[in-house]
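User: Sequence recovery, please. Input:
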């Protein structure tokens, strides 16, 4: 799904990467070792996209006692993994599922993050 879209886009831009960085916090989706950069592709629902305009991040209507701690736990874990990566000298970029609707804007964002 969304990860494959990002993979194809990044590969088409000429960047080469490794998948699911074993040994790195959070096991990033795309790893650029020589650049010390990683990309996470997050689903807006599962990772609690904070953008209020994102309709994909809405909460379910039932079983809130289950969903709220589960989804907030995912968000806290993501923040912690990002902090750990930063302390190891890595930079990370999160691409949200809703951002895939604008591929040109996304390509510019990726290019700015990865550099030449």
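Assistant: Recovered sequence (116 residues):
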């Amino acid at each position: 799904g969304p990860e494959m879209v990002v993979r194809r886009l990044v590969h088409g831009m000429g960047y080469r990467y490794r998948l699911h960085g074993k040994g790195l916090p959070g096991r990033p989706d795309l790893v650029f070792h020589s650049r010390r950069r990683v990309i996470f592709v997050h689903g807006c629902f599962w990772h609690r996209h904070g953008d209020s305009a994102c309709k994909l991040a809405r909460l379910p209507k039932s079983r809130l006692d289950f969903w709220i701690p589960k989804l907030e736990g995912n968000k806290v874990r993501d923040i912690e993994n990002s902090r750990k990566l930063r302390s190891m000298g890595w930079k990370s970029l999160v691409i949200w599922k809703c951002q895939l609707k604008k591929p040109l804007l996304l390509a510019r964002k990726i290019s700015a993050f990865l550099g030449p």
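The first helix runs from residue 2 to 12.
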